């Protein structure tokens, strides 16, 4: 059975072909769309079906996503790489976040109304700073191991990608990876560095990743299954 990861407009989906199927079926689970099609149905035909069913699909996708979003703020703790840290909100003259004795202390300005949106914003900024320090260190480590040289490093805020590598050797990483375990964030570093040698997902690319990071398949699966845990 073949499987393809595809996208139409905002909707990304997994397309699988089976010789046993007689008709196309759409299935939504865990906030993801899977299209099961009989062999012979073209991607264009599948895209046309998705376009026709777009409102049904987006409605059900958003419903399952809402159910699966981790609510860290309600739980009163946030993950930072391999740690789970409790956080406290206090009112102060200046807004900011700091780590103290294994707790995250969020200071909110007395002048601003302490909303969840504001809390999310402060924590996001804090994660971005953590990401900048951590990824700078890990890129230095891994590029020495892999004998590669990257250029500028950017920390980004994307809903659908974990990192990138440009042809000018610039690397980018999603701050959300700071909410994942170290072995996951490390995998993304090795993946993007490997693109310095192969700017594609060819067999040679995966061989290079495999050489330095044998658990890459597990890491990819973890990211797919736990994506919703990496949201504030
Ligand atoms: Zn890649």
From TrEMBL:
Q: Does the keyword Hydrolase apply?
A: yes
Q: Which residues form the signal peptide?
A: none
UniProt keywords (A-Z) are: Hydrolase, Metalloprotease, Protease
Domain (YgjP-like metallopeptidase): give its ranges. 22-226
The name under which this protein is listed is: SprT family zinc-dependent metalloprotease
Q: Which residues form a coiled coil?
A: none
Q: Which InterPro entries match?
A: UTP_pyrophosphatase-like, YgjP-like_metallopeptidase
Source organism, top-level taxon: Bacteria
Which molecular-function annotations from GO does this UniProt entry contain?
A: metallopeptidase activity
The source organism is Rheinheimera aquimaris
Q: What Pfam families has UniProt attached to this entry?
A: YgjP-like
